[in-house]
Write a structure and sequence with these properties.
Strand order of the largest sheet: 3-7-4-6-5-8
CATH architecture of the largest domain: Beta Barrel
GO molecular function: lytic endotransglycosylase activity; peptidoglycan binding
Function: Lytic transglycosylase with a strong preference for naked glycan strands that lack stem peptides.
Number of strands: 12
CATH class of the largest domain: Mainly Beta
Largest sheet: 6 strands, mixed, barrel
Number of helices: 5
Order of helices and strands: HEEEEEEEHEHEHEEHE
Shape: elongated
Pfam families: DPBB_1, SPOR
Structural class: alpha+beta
GO biological process, one term: cell wall organization
Family: Belongs to the RlpA family.
Helix content: 10-25%
Length: 260
């Protein structure tokens, strides 16, 4: 009985030691899969709008004694640096986003981008590119900016070297509802440049005619001895674009859109 208890305690101590030395974010003993399937035909991640997850986007978090501030949005993000990849050690385990890590999918880990984000990654040595879906945190090394899945690293031809100099560019997809609301608010003013003439009388006569026909106000801008007739303002870009195309088909092929 005593021997069994001693053995049990030793097993628990060994397990705890393993956990502390090989934590969630330490890459020791990570490796490529022993018998990987053919990943050459794995498609890029398909960018689409996804709300940022609650669990994976704490504003601040700490790993290995260092704190990181998560971005509120990935819009406009671009960076160059060193990429690494992670594989079999994490395969099947939960990501920071609460999903299951699949090293054969086009996914990645980033320290501060909101989760999930879609990123175009380019290997600067060979110009090979891949689009990945960022759903995890890492890599927690000072000189690395992204950790790629096995499949993504394979596509970029960086498995043998382990790292690669890359450029990152977020593919940002806006919330369709927010975009629709912004369109309805019409925060920008659009004008359609219809025609220019040196005859003020001709422009004024045409302005009256177009206002009646299209039920849109007009204005005349002068410069370089020309009078430029413009329809507007129009707050909604969709309507402005449609009217521009209509004008082109109805005798004003040089019409184009201006935004203020």
């Amino acid at each position: 009985m005593l021997l069994n208890k001693v053995l049990s305690v030793l097993v628990i101590i060994t397990a705890l030691a393993a956990c502390s030395s090989n934590g969630r974010y330490e890459l020791d003993n990570d490796k490529a899969p022993a018998s990987a399937p053919d990943v050459t035909k794995v498609e890029d991640a398909h960018p689409k709008y996804e709300p940022y997850s609650r669990g994976g986007n704490k504003s601040t978090y700490t790993v290995l004694g260092k704190s990181y501030n998560v971005m509120s949005t990935g819009e406009g993000y671009a960076e160059k640096g060193i990429a690494s990849w992670y594989g079999a050690k994490f395969h099947g385990h939960l990501t920071s986003n609460g999903e299951t890590y699949d090293m054969y999918s086009m996914s990645a880990a980033h320290k501060t981008l909101p989760l999930p984000s879609y990123v175009k990654v380019t290997n600067l040595k060979n110009d090979k590119t891949v689009i990945v879906r960022v759903n995890d945190r890492g890599p927690f090394h000072e000189d690395r900016i992204i950790d790629l899945s096995y499949a993504a690293a394979h596509r970029l031809d960086m498995l043998k070297t382990g790292t690669a100099n890359v450029s990152l560019e977020v593919i940002y997809i806006a919330d369709p509802e927010s975009a629709a609301l912004a369109e309805l608010k019409g925060t920008k003013q659009h004008f359609i440049q219809v025609v220019a003439s040196s005859s003020k009388q001709r422009i004024e006569s045409l302005a009256t005619s177009l206002e009646q026909k299209y039920q849109v106000k007009t204005r005349v801008k002068t410069g370089d001895n020309l009078y430029r007739l413009q329809l507007g303002p129009i707050s909604q870009s969709t309507i402005a674009n449609k009217l521009t195309e209509k004008l082109k088909k109805e005798g004003y092929p040089s019409s184009y859109l201006l935004t203020e």
